[in-house]
Hints:
- It is a single chain.
- The chain is of the alpha/beta class.
- It folds into four domains: 3-121, Response regulator (Rossmann fold); 128-307, Rossmann fold (3-Layer(aba) Sandwich), CATH 3.40.50; 311-394, Helicase, Ruva Protein, domain 3, CATH 1.10.8; 406-475, Arc Repressor Mutant, subunit A (Orthogonal Bundle), CATH 1.10.10.
- It is 48% helix and 14% strand.
- The chain contains 21 helices and 18 strands.
- It has helices at residues 11-22, 34-38, 61-71, 86-94, 108-120, 123-137, 145-158, 174-184, 202-210, 227-230, 246-258, 284-289, 295-301, 318-326, 338-346, 352-365, 380-394, 406-421, 428-453, 458-465, 469-475; strands spanning 3-7, 27-31, 49-53, 55-56, 59-60, 76-81, 99-102, 164-167, 192-196, 211-212, 224-225, 235-239, 260-261, 270-271, 275-280, 304-307, 333-336, 371-374.
- It has a five-stranded parallel beta sheet, sandwiched between helices. Strands 9-12-15-8-16 form a five-stranded parallel beta sheet.
- Strand 4 and strand 5 form a beta hairpin.
- The longest helix is centred in the last third of the chain and has 26 residues, at 428-453.
- Residues 3-118 form the Response regulatory domain.
- Residues 421-448 form a coiled coil.
- InterPro entries: AAA+_ATPase, AAA_lid_NorR, CheY-like_superfamily, Homeodomain-like_sf, HTH_Fis, P-loop_NTPase, Sig_transdc_resp-reg_receiver, Sigma_54_int.
Amino acid sequence: xxxxxxxxxxxxxxxxxxxxxxxxxxxxxxxxxxxxxxxxxxxxxxxxxxxxxxxxxxxxxxxxxxxxxxxxxxxxxxxxxxxxxxxxxxxxxxxxxxxxxxxxxxxxxxxxxxxxxxxxxxxxxxxxxxxxxxxxxxxxxxxxxxxxxxxxxxxxxxxxxxxxxxxxxxxxxxxxxxxxxxxxxxxxxxxxxxxxxxxxxxxxxxxxxxxxxxxxxxxxxxxxxxxxxxxxxxxxxxxxxxxxxxxxxxxxxxxxxxxxxxxxxxxxxxxxxxxxxxxxxxxxxxxxxxxxxxxxxxxxxxxxxxxxxxxxxxxxxxxxxxxxxxxxxxxxxxxxxxxxxxxxxxxxxxxxxxxxxxxxxxxxxxxxxxxxxxxxxxxxxxxxxxxxxxxxxxxxxxxxxxxxxxxxxxxxxxxxxxxxxxxxxxxxxxxxxxxxxxxxxxxxxxxxxxxxxxxxxxxxxxxxxxxxxxxxxxxxxxxxxxx
Length: 483
């Protein structure tokens, strides 16, 4: 017989749950205090499921969870929590809890379904479902334990109507991760819509998010729905949320608090049920302290925080990622020698998965035939960058960006002097144009080199170069400079 352990200091709640699940054929044991919990002989009483209240007067619910999972690892645990402790419930899932449910129990049918599904679910099939969903959206689970853990937590919270903040360095795949959460949720048949908050001006982003009425501004020739309206039953993904202006942050806060918004130029409030996922490669807590990001919005977004590990911390997954990227080119047969894979795994990948993807694309693009065998000798770029980065990492990180570029500048100077010394007539405009081109190349090279030293942290790179994030993206040719 399936046995369930109920841990709740409220006697009425314990009696209700005992009656509910006993009537369904389960064997139920209820404890109302830590003293009663300590009296349980876990060696002789096996529990298939447990429901643990996080708020106990004489015990920490997380400590009891750890004890249960340590003594009986296969026991499925549901955390009982109030809304104010949802973040703690998410921490509990990271510690091994399978699910959580909010108190008071407004929907008894949902409570029964959660427990039934949990107790009859097969662990292997659940793992297979995660792998299938991840494969469908292009997310590689891999072998790295930290990555597997964050994916499992994402899967557990996907079915909850809570906001999720996804953190991670540039290029770690935050949008793909957001798509996984959407596909694992009950909204998977609805729209998933994403927008980059750093790629649009304030006015354009406002119109994009909330829509506008005809005549609201110059060029608004017709009414237009915003993303909150379009994705009302689905998922809205806000990338680079840290770059949203203060005005946009205020409007986002109102939507999250009231689920209502107005189109630009509109007078009637509209309702949205969109599930919000946000992502950032910056430290939002630091941004809050620096008064660059609203504290109340941060707490609204950060109900659940999931941090994607950088590629340098999950190098064992690089062969799987390469295999995944090569599937884009079915007509090519590309293989890597052990030495080549070892070299690729020794590189730090400051641009993370995006950099690896681009690297594989370059290899395939310049391949001469349908079958290519890549050896370590074919990877001088990766080898050079790896050695350079390791030297910098060994130093104190105060190295001036651009060190080591003297030879490049010297060579350009010598070539230019040699070329123009042979000419009697010099086109000044041509010289100035070449200087401008050199300036652009040096700017981009300095940014890339600084990104290496900061392991892809763009905010830190911009700080070291004493430029804004917009300027940094401009130098990388990612967007038009508006400064």
